[in-house]
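Title: Comparing notes on inverse folding

I've been comparing how different people in this forum approach sequence design from structure. To keep things fair, I'm posting one structure and asking everyone to reply with a full sequence. Here's the target:
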């Protein structure tokens, strides 16, 4: 079921709608292929292999985002833009490349934080169970609309 959620990230008011099944499936597979190895390598380097300990620990999302930023190429940048297809930021439609460019010029860390929020809202990392590792406290809360 498609639903909408809103939150504030780094002062940006973010309103996103989950993708429909076909768009979500396609994007989810792309996200898993591109971001999955980066996220998995982060968790692989944690001092414990016990998943319960990892889930119960505080995970700093900025380390994952820093790793992602170090590995971005044109293909990844295009995927990040596609993630914003159903998202408004400060009331502006982020599927419009000009709006997207103006909103995030020089604000790349915020852009990546919002992209990870969109990934979380759409449950893309649940494909391999990775989404269950990222604690809700490391992401901005979903403030309205998302039903389980």
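Reply #1:
Here's my take.
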């Amino acid at each position: 079921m498609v639903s909408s959620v809103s939150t504030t990230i780094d002062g940006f008011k973010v309103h996103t709608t989950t993708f429909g099944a076909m768009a979500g499936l396609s994007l989810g597979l792309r996200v898993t292929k591109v971001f999955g190895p980066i996220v998995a390598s982060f968790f692989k380097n944690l001092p414990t292999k016990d998943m319960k300990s990892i889930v119960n620990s505080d995970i700093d999302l900025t380390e994952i985002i820093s790793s992602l930023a170090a590995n971005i190429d044109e293909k990844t940048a295009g995927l990040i833009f596609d993630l914003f297809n159903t998202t408004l930021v400060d009331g502006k439609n982020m599927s419009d490349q000009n709006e997207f460019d103006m909103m995030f010029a020089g604000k790349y860390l915020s852009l990546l934080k919002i992209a990870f929020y969109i990934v979380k809202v759409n449950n893309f990392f649940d494909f391999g169970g990775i989404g269950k590792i990222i604690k809700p406290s490391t992401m901005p809360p979903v403030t309205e609309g998302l039903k389980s």
